[in-house]
Write a structure and sequence with these properties.
The complex is a heterodimer. Chain A is mostly helical. Chain A is built from 23 helices and 2 strands. Chain A has one domain. Chain B is mainly alpha-helical. The chains are: A mainly alpha, B mainly alpha.
């Protein structure tokens, strides 16, 4: 325990240097902006900002990017409540009751509850990250290749189960992502695979152009198709403080949302989005009078908004402790770390404690900044909301192009981004979720590597995956998940959950 | 001019996605047929691709079969205007950038993509392009000192 306190004090020492404070603030501001603006998400923004981080010291860069992700969770609720459009995908459920509250003249309380709930959740989640990453590192350092293989399989299965839409199609998307990860030169044999003689593909397809194509470009096209260029109606804010009655209703929901988010954030495939959905479902289920939901129920804002912020932060745990990114945003963080020559995982924590504890301490500071940015300064963000999308999308486009180009200084990546933009639009059309594909893409090389090593250890016997308890446990759990989600009863329940929310 | 877009619902989301997955799986099996398989204790570069190819093709076929009785509808209309103009804007950025640098690339790219939204005018393209080109130069080249060619090397 005293170790933890010492580490945290050390972390705060790192985080409060003027430079790191400045970048924490920049991250929080940008995050709020990205959150407020619909059609621009944290994945695309972090990818756009990667070139900026080249010139920064690693700690400052990661503090800024982390702030951007949880900052987006604060900003997303503003748009959801005032305009009834999710500023961020994780704020989809906040639209339902948050906007209803705004229509009934309680926009101010909805905003305040969302921000205060997020702040509380952020503080708790920061503590969770600090408490659990350390022990997890010790566990992870005893993992061998088969165990990592099992964990990776479990991660992908969890991502499928937690994704929206058809389970079978999501499995196919993961496999497709694994394939994309194979493109390029095989490290073990030097054989080039699926490059079709194109020399630019010899190093593989970059993660940034794929992610930017699927999440940036495809999203722009899809927003324009849905008429995103039309002007928006923004509700007025009256009194920026909840009533005693509202606060009484909100508190228990904030607590539950924080718990749900902290738990689901750690799961592979988890993060902000799924946490918000789960929290809304739970609130609706345990409410004495479920019919209030959809009519402006305070819990329908407090629960999901706390959960998405908690989930955003605890999703750092698997990345920091094991080096495994649970969602696309964390995969970009992994990319950012790699640019600076840091390999996250058990070793990084002991070799770069400044990075690890500095980032954790910065999360708490960042949340404190965000509550100020989002409550007293709410008027500024409403101004940003008035920027019409028909101007905004060109800005997004240009920054995507520059961001992708600067990662490797080649326009080939810009063309790859265009191709994946088209593919992403096709996927939206045939209702396939891009998130499982991205996860398979990131985890693919790790999966093959650990699969190969496991078979070397066992001299070619597949039993190795069942002999080690950790690996067998993960595989059994994966199988259980898959069977459960395909069972008719649970399946309809799952579909209903996503449908309701 | 404002176009009203009518959704064109088509049933059988499973059939189309199944076709796509089966096709990609089959293509991958074919393209990866020559990669050495190795032995189980030392798997070659073709081992995992073949496993994944069979898995993907299998799932694709399963989806196509399942499409006989599933009736999930998808919107089969294509918003050609944003699709073509946005993609053309990105491709133009790449081509013009290589030929003449950052500022022309931004101007040309915005000039094309701008018309993806029907209500945008030429003035929007020019003003927005100029602002973005200046801002990108100030931020990336002056501010962050990234080695980007700005104007006709």
């Amino acid at each position: 325990m005293s170790d933890l306190v010492q580490n945290l004090i050390f972390g705060f020492g790192v985080a409060v240097t003027p430079q790191n404070l400045l970048f924490c603030l920049i991250g929080a501001l940008l995050g709020t902006l990205v959150g407020v603006l619909p059609g621009l998400g944290p994945v695309a923004t972090i990818a756009m900002l990667l070139p900026i981080t080249f010139t920064l010291p690693p700690v400052a860069a990661l503090i800024m990017l982390a702030g951007l992700y949880y900052g987006a969770q604060y900003g997303g609720s503003t748009t959801a409540i005032l305009v009834n459009i999710p500023g961020e995908s994780s704020s989809v459920v906040t639209c339902i009751d948050g906007h209803m509250m705004a229509r009934k003249g309680r926009a101010g309380s909805a905003l305040a509850i969302a921000a205060l709930g997020s702040f509380f959740a952020g503080c708790v989640a920061t503590a969770v990250v600090a408490l659990f990453s350390g022990p997890l590192v010790i566990v992870a350092s005893s993992f061998r290749s088969p165990d990592y293989f099992g964990l990776l399989v479990f991660g992908m299965v969890a991502a499928v189960v937690l994704a929206q839409g058809s389970v079978v199609r999501s499995v196919a998307m993961v496999v497709l992502g694994l394939f994309l990860g194979l493109i390029g030169t095989d490290i073990a044999s030097g054989q080039t695979r699926f490059t079709f003689g194109i020399s630019a593909l010899a190093d593989g397809v970059g993660f940034v152009p794929v992610a930017m194509g699927l999440f940036g470009i495809a999203e722009v096209i899809s927003s324009l198709e849905r008429g995103g260029a039309k002007p928006k109606v923004i509700e007025k804010i009256s009194r920026l403080w909840p009533t005693r009655e509202e606060a009484r209703q909100a508190w228990p929901a904030v607590l539950r949302g924080t718990g749900i988010g902290s738990l689901l954030g750690v799961l592979p495939g988890g993060g902000a989005l799924i946490s918000a959905f789960a929290a809304y479902m739970v609130e609706k289920k345990i409410a004495k009078d479920p019919s209030r939901f959809g009519q402006g129920a305070v819990e329908g804002v407090a629960g999901p908004e706390s959960a998405n912020n908690a989930g955003a932060q605890t999703s750092f745990i698997p990345l920091l402790a094991m080096g495994i990114p649970p969602n696309p945003v964390m995969a970009l963080m992994l990319g950012a770390m790699t640019i600076h020559g840091i390999v996250p995982g058990p070793k990084a924590m002991t070799e770069r404690p400044d990075l690890f504890w500095g980032m954790i301490a910065s999360m708490w500071i960042g949340n404190l900044m965000l509550i100020i940015i989002n409550l007293p300064l709410i008027g500024i963000w409403v101004k940003f909301l008035q920027i019409p999308y028909r101007w905004l999308y060109s800005v997004i486009l240009v920054f995507c192009c520059i961001g992708v180009y600067t990662v490797n200084n080649t326009t080939t990546d810009v063309l790859i981004m265009a191709a994946f933009g088209l593919f992403g639009y096709l996927l939206i059309k045939i209702r396939c979720e891009p998130a499982p594909l991205i996860l398979g893409f990131i985890l693919g090389p790790m999966l093959e590597e650990n699969f190969r090593r496991s078979l070397i250890i066992s001299r070619g016997s597949w039993w190795v995956f069942l002999e080690r308890p950790i690996c067998a446990g993960f595989l059994a759990l994966s199988l259980l998940f898959l069977i459960a989600v395909l069972l008719p009863g649970i399946r309809t329940g799952r579909e209903k959950a996503f449908h309701d929310a | 001019m404002v176009e009203e877009r009518k959704p064109r619902p088509v049933e059988r989301a499973d059939l189309w996605s199944g076709l796509m997955f089966a096709g990609i799986g089959a293509a991958a099996l074919w393209a990866g047929a020559d990669y050495p398989q190795g032995v189980p204790s030392r798997i070659g570069p073709g081992y995992v691709p073949r496993l994944l190819g069979m898995l993907l093709a299998g799932i694709g076929i399963f989806l196509m079969v399942r499409a006989w009785w599933t009736r999930e509808s998808i919107d089969a209309s294509v918003a050609w205007r944003p699709v073509l103009l946005i993609l053309a804007g990105v491709v133009a950025f790449a081509l013009v950038f290589d030929a003449s640098g950052l500022a022309p690339a931004i101007l040309v790219s915005v000039a094309i993509a701008n018309f993806a939204a029907p209500e945008n005018k030429w003035t929007t393209a020019v003003v927005l392009g100029a602002i973005l080109a200046f801002f990108a130069w100030a931020l990336f080249v002056k501010g962050l000192a990234l080695p980007l060619p700005v104007w006709f090397r």
